[in-house]
Amino acid sequence: MTRPAARSAWRAAALLPVLWFATHASGTETVPALEPGKGWRYSVFLANVTAVDNLALALDGTMYATLELARGEGRVVRIQNNRVEPIATGLNRPDGLLLRGKYLYVAEEVAEGRVLKIELASGKQQVLATLHNPEGIDILRNGNLVITEDSVNGRLVQLHKNGTVETIIAGLNRPEGIAVAKDGTIYIAETGTGRVLAYKNGVLNTLVDDLDEPDQVEIAPDGALWIAEDAKPGRVLRFKDGTLETVMSGLLAPQGMAFGAKGMVYVAEQGRHRILLLQRVEN
Question: Residue 68: which of 269, 277, 278 has the closest Cα?
Fold first, then answer.
């Protein structure tokens, strides 16, 4: 991905923690060291999850993930007891993921990408629509899906139950992750401008800016908005009550997030092919 232009110095100083770089044994490559924000700790939940992208967590603790591989190698997997089981194969860069009841909804991020409905029990797939680089996917209060198209002239669209595609917003610059709040607000990660946008009742506002490739957004149970920057190094951020908090820095292309019991937060770190578990440090 192409990074946005350099951000203003004062915002960078306010938002970016100091990153320390660890050198590989070869001495020819460097990778960022992981740095949890103040009051946070992390552990590796599951390693060796190739090209892991978006996550969804069921009430019983079962996790689902998209593996963003191309040319029919992409998969949707179920993760239980540290075991990874494919439930849908033959996909082309599956990215966006939504769990609702006994179905998963998946978006393939390619030029003629399918929006799929997958039955969990059988793995049966139904094509709901074909869009241009569909990525973020969520559901509106009326039961229709809302989806982003990741391009420099991208759209936010509503997919009606009869298959009709309606443009909500046009002219976005690489909209990727989205999240729909209880009050109907749609949060959009606009990667091309480094912003997170908020759309409600026909009005589009900038919620957070000066970010580095914001990719995925999710709403936590406490109402906080979580943001992943798909950069190397990238950060996971938490925005609540007007304050932006760095939860984790030094990540390699962090992607989707999911929220578990007792404040647990799962993050797909695609660049290291693993899923991390973030938790508050108890005093």
Answer: 269
What is d(CA 68, CA 136) in angstroms, rounded to the nearest whole number? Answer: 13
CA neighbours closer than 13 Å in the CB half-sphere of residue 225? 27
CA–CA gap between residue 214 and residue 223 (Å, rounded): 19
Q: What does pLDDT average to in each consecutive run of 10 residues of the chain (283 residues)?
A: 37 34 43 93 98 97 97 97 95 98 97 97 96 98 97 97 97 98 97 98 97 98 97 97 98 98 96 98 79
**Which single residue is written with the structure tokens 């009051």?**
39
Residue 87: CB partners within 8 Å, gap ≥ 6?
Answer: 64, 76, 77, 78, 104, 118, 120, 123
Answer whether the bond into residue 134 is a cis peptide, omega within 30°: no
DSSP 3-state of 191? helix
Alpha carbons 173 and 192: distance in angstroms, whole number: 5
In angstroms and rounded to an integer, the radius of gyration of the C-alpha atoms of the chain is 18
In the block, residue with structure tokens 């406490």? 222
Alpha carbon 205 to chain centroid, angstroms = 20
Whole-number Å distance between alpha carbons of 283 and 280: 9
Q: Coil, strand, or helix at residue 192?
A: helix
19 in helix, strand or coil? coil
C-alpha–C-alpha distance, residues 146 and 150, integer Å: 13
CA distance 71 to 48: 20
Is residue 177 within 8 Å of 190, Cβ to Cβ? no
How distant is the alpha carbon of residue 58 from its chain centre?
Answer: 17
| Entry pTM | 0.89
Interatomic CA distance for residues 90 and 111, integer angstroms: 16
In contact, 144 and 158? CB cutoff 8 Å: yes
